[in-house]
Amino acid sequence: MKCPAVACLWPPSPPSHRISAAAVLFHNPPCLFTGGADGAIVRWTLSGHDVRPLALLCGHSAKIAALAPCFPDAIQQFSSNSICSNSTPASLLSACENGVLCVWSAGSFRCRRRRRLPSWAGIPSHLAEHPSSPHHICIACSYGESSNTSVLIVDSGTLLIVQTVFHGSLGIGSVKFMAIVPSLEETDKDMQAVFVVDGNGKTQFLPLSKDYAGRDYECSTSANRVSSSDSLAGESSSNNGGLQAAAIARDGNLLALIYEFHCEFRSISNGAAMGEISLPCTNLGDEGSFKISGGMFLHHIDFGNASNIHICAEDFKRSFALWYSNGSATVYIISILDSSVNCEPHCEVPAVSLRSGGGSLFHLCQLNDCLLRLESTPFSMGDLLTWKPSITIWSMAEARMSRESVPGKCSSSVILGEGGFSGIRFNPTQKVDRRLEERHQNEILDSNLGIIASRKTDSGFNFENPIISCSMVFSGELYYPQYAVVYGFYSGEIKVTHLQSPSLNSNSMEEDSLHHSKLNASGCFFSGHTGAVLCLAVHRMDASSRNLRIQRILLSGSMDCTVRLWDFDSGSLMLVMHHHMAPVKQIILPSTLTERPWYDCFLSVGEDGCVALVSLETLRVERMFCGHPSYPSAVAWDSRRGYLACLCQCMSTPSDTVSTLYLWDVKTGARERIIRGSASRSMLDHFCSCINQSILGEATSSSPLILPIVDDSGFSQSKQTKTDVGTVSVSSGDMLKSSRKGTDFVESSIYFTNSNKGKLASMSMINDANSNLVVNNSTKHTGFQHVGQSKKHPIICSCPFPGIVSLEFDLSTLVSLQHSLNSDEQMVSQSCEHAEEQSLHNEPLKDDNFATEGLEGFFLRFSLCFLHLWDIDLELDKLLKEEMDVYKPNGFKIAAGIMGDRGSMTLMFPGLCVSLELWKSSSEYCAMRSLLIVSLAQRMIGLYHSTTVASSSLAAFYTRNFAEKVQDLKPPSLQLLVSFWQDPSEHVRMAARSLFHCAAPRAIPCPLYGQNTSRPGTPHSSVIVEENIHSEIVSWLESFDIHDWVSWIGGTNQDSIASRIIVAAALVVWYPSKVKSKLAELVADRLVKLVMSMNDRFSSTAAEILAEGMEGSWKSCLGPEISQLVGDVLFQIECLSGTPADSVKYSSSMTETICDSLVGILLPSLACADIVGFLNVIEDQIWSTSSDSPVHLVSLKTLARITRNSPKTLALYLDKVCFCYFTC
Questions:
Q1: How far is residue 957's CA from residue 3's CA, in Å, rounded to a whole number?
Q2: Per 3-state DSSP, what percentage of the chain is helix, strand, and coil (rounded to 5)?
Q3: What's the half-sphere exposure (Cβ side, CA atoms, 13 Å) at 961?
Q4: Strands (DSSP E) along 15-99, which ranges?
Q5: What span, in angstroms and rounded, lies between the C-alpha atoms of 1167 and 1154?
Q6: Which of 313, 761, 927, 937 is the S-S candidate for 951 at Cβ 3.0 to 4.6 Å?
Q7: What are the Cα distances from residue 956, in Å, to 926, 963, 978?
Q8: WD repeat ranges (predicted)?
Q9: Cα separation of 61 and 723, whole Å?
Q10: Rounded to an integer, what distance in angstroms lies between the CA atom of residue 1121 and that of residue 1130?
């Protein structure tokens, strides 16, 4: 089982965020989500007047095309005339322009599923909810090669395509708007259709078939049945300016077509014009000063003060909102009478002043009776633009000015709250360059949201801290960790920030030095670039290189079209290269398994379409791959086989995009093949799947989110990896390993030792150990490189977005690090014998185990520095500092995070209150984080006895004290905790059981709660009918749904069922008074079946629970079946102890674990429960099995245990006991 934990380091300056999509989820409190042009999704909390960012959802690397609520766990109900009501909270579905879909679960908003659409589907542009099936989402995709369009129905739980509604060329233009409406066919009113609108206002209906209901597999059959195209827009005049947006009423009968200067209302059924709203009628300004950006129909709102609008009672009323390019908005009350629309303005949102809103993009969302205005303001940083988001809440119900007071003027809305990113202050003296505005005009136009930027750009922003343009993390070797963050700024400077601690770099344990032991950020600057730094990389030179003076080289590419090479250790500039004619966007390093001469080379990718191969030995360009029509959006380098793949997107028009893949031979520099169309993406995915490395290198500033997405073991039972294109013969483990490499884990090791045994491990001890063994670089690299290549780094670092650093801590690697390092040291000691003979200091190596303990102690304390929740228990914090030398990092903004599916992450914004939101909203997060910290604390006790008090206090805090100090914390998930009861590590098993016992009284599932017990926070229930109790428990135990917590640990639906059986059985044994009395009877048979199923994750645990509760709970339920169970257990033991051919499907470790549980725990308890039946079964087994059968020895051991522990129970059956003794 996986148990990762994520910590996040935020930069001093806030990230750039240009809003391209938005969605509101009506939780308690409501949540706003804004998708950015860089692929980031920000979750905002809207509580009262508080508007602040809460989390950053990292799952996309391209512009967010659309966001929509979904219900992955909803029960499907197919009814076209009613909207399906669902009690479960809504999740979020996001789609980006590179075809990646993500489902973010409710509560913690962890990515529960991440998948790329097949390449033939095209680029997602719109999402629409399915009214009658909330489990499904409709997706519109476009592909510019032949103006093809795909309309798909996708299961929001698995992200599999369940129906292809349409695939081909539409009778209209590119899709501008999409919704699902009732079908217009008179023959079948229950059918529904996908309603699409193009940029000219033309519409088309795509009928939905009913035969896809319940499908959960990929369906690629196209259903091209469409209705005739009808132009509802009438004659489109040239001064309309093109369709900006479209909206449809909730009943599906009224369509609004929004142009730049007016809005038309038309009937869906016949296309007749019913009215319009012209821009001059709003009296908000001259027509040339601003334009209409978008509009939407609002949900039902009781305005209260709308009584002065004279509308007949029989009129059907709607509310409609229009917003404009200057940030203003107007809300209308629409009434339909005699096939005509009457629009009366009700209230307005004032415009943003040009001083603060020049060039801004705007969008509106509805939140109950309020409007949310989303603003993205640009400001220039040299030749680039960066964006600041801000959100304001405006009340439509509370108006400060009535319409009677000022004739011809509607009332003004009241602002209730505002917020945004902190760290930016307004400076009216700085102006955005007009050249930048013209250059980014295509970016400013957002067709999905209908946003238009004002051409007047006369304002700017000044930053309190320098803005980061790119970043990367360097971690050093596994045996010599040196964590550093490299930042590149818009100013052209580069800063290397080392994560070092005097406590981790000092041998002194004196009390007077404790207050100096803090994890601080120290760094150095590299200056020389005249433009923004766009890419970074750190390369470790090969030991056999001719240039032995420089070990690590920092590579940087910039807007000034140069690539600079720096000595990473000394900070001196080595070389400036001018082989590109445009900004350098990417630097790619070879795989660590690459041989010379390609190992000491790198690739530079520029906006001029050229890819250059540069040698770090000769310091010159060796190959230049030219001829790409544009900047390669994706580059994959197979450095072992010598091939290069470059994917380019040729954009002749914004709606016409053709992907082309270029394959190059690196050795000769020749272009081997060109692949165009949808096959280019498929070929690139296949090409990347055969490369066991990152698509853009390892120690670079490339985001790990750009890696190819493949199925992992959690959803694929096959040993092969299934992709969207086909099946690639590569293991899931290799692909996951490849996808998690976001930093430089140089796969070489340095042997070390030290004689300072007895002190708490410090990094200086590890550093000093290197002085005991002085060898040349060539010998070290040759002797140790093979050791670390197969070892997983316990802390994986990456930068999903510029300036944001994520640290992923793997529990299984951290608690098993000593065993892994000990096995490595045996290999290293053999490899370095020749090196010791040539060393200058021929001193004997001492205390090898302490070097291992010192490195393990460093990783454990380094992890606790970032994972512990500081400033909650000040006494505990002081104890950690004084006894364990674990300090809160200084100079960083630390935040919590959650690991999602396939490399995705949910990173919280910094702040104690924000971190506590996770503990209050997700029981899975509480279980995972508590389990990891308690396991590390227990490992520290075993490693250093001097830290017993602090480690015990730390474990007690996360098991009991935390819930007492902070109210409304979610109890840990019991199902998740029992999944670790059979973990290979003893510390993890102990931590999981301790957390279970502390959380069980307040975390018992509702279907299992007893009648006479009242659940905290729920009223006392009345007497429940016996049949309802039975059905409620059975439905909970036998549910085949894959719950959200299963994806946290990488489990399957079988694990979900087995864990529920373990939880129910454990509650029956240890908390019988808190559960329903009928639970023991219903779970007993399922527990026995789980024991006999030989499940490597739960069978041993099930055997222990069955044995422990045999006398008090299970004996009365099983009754005469106990003797039969004894025979089954003996037969199972014989099968597990058979020949390797007979037990080939069982691993040796699993066989040993299960046999120990069956022989040492379960059989003695079964024998004590039914002595007569046990002796009869043994007697039958002795006669029916051979003399060398393990049943004889097992029977003898069991009789010996019973005789020693319960001799009185055998007194009445001495004859049979003696017979069995002598026969065995």
A1: 20
A2: 30, 30, 40
A3: 14
A4: 19-25, 31-36, 40-47, 50-58, 64-70, 91-96
A5: 18
A6: 937
A7: 14, 11, 19
A8: 526-576
A9: 19
A10: 14
- From the list 283, 323, 320, the residue with the least C-alpha distance to 408 is 283
CA distance 741 to 1071: 45
User: Quick one: DSSP state of residue 759?
Assistant: S
Angle between helices 1026-1037 and 1053-1070 (to 10 degrees): 130
Label residue 528 exposed, middle or buried (CB < 10 Å: 0-12, 13-18, 19+): middle
Expressed in angstroms, the distance from the first to the final Cα of the chain is: 40
Please compute, for residue 953, the number of CA atoms within 13 A of its CA located in the half-sphere on the CB side.
16
**297 phi, psi to nearest 5 deg:** -80, 135
**CA-closest candidate to residue 388, choices 348, 432, 350, 351:** 432
The better pLDDT of the pair 1051, 711 is held by 1051
Euclidean distance between CA atoms 1063 and 1101, whole angstroms: 11
Q: From CA 71, how far away is CA 238, in angstroms rounded?
A: 42
What type of residue is 568?
F
User: In the numeric block, which tokens belong to residue 969?
Assistant: 């914390």
Q: At what angle do helices 986-1003 and 1053-1070 cross, to 10 degrees?
A: 70
Listed range (11-25, 464-478, 555-569, 644-658) with the worst mean pLDDT: 644-658
Model confidence band, residue 22 (pLDDT cutoffs 50, 70, 90) = very high
Phi then psi dihedrals of residue 657, to 5 deg? -120, 125
How many other C-beta atoms can be found within 10 angstroms of the C-beta atom of residue 837?
Answer: 9
What is the longest distance spanned by two Cα atoms in the chain?
A: 110
Tokens 């589907």 correspond to what residue? 121
Contacts of 934 (CB under 8 A, 6+ apart): 954, 955, 958, 959, 991, 994, 995
Listed in order, strand segments (DSSP E) in 259-383 are 262-267, 273-278, 292-298, 316-324, 329-337, 340-349, 361-367, 370-381
Residue 960, classified by CB atoms within 10 Å of its CB into exposed (0-12), middle (13-18) or buried (19+), is middle
- Report how far residue 146's alpha carbon sits from residue 115's, in angstroms, rounded to the nearest whole number: 25
Distance CA(585)–CA(701), nearest Å, equals 10
Taking only the tens place, the pLDDT of each residue in 184-197 is 766 566 688 899 99
The residue type at 149: T
The string of DSSP codes covering 288-302 is TT--EEEEEEEPP--
DSSP state, residue 686: H
Helices (H), strands (E): how many in the chain? 30, 54
Which secondary-structure segment (H or E) carries 642?
none
- Tokens read off for 1062: 């373990």
Classified as helix, coil or strand, 895 is strand
State the DSSP code for 451: B
| C-alpha to C-alpha distance for 357 and 379, rounded to whole angstroms | 11
Q: Give the pLDDT band (50/70/90) at residue 441.
A: very low
Q: Which residues contact 292 (CB under 8 A, 6 or more apart)?
A: 244, 258, 259, 260, 261, 262, 263, 279, 322, 323, 324, 325
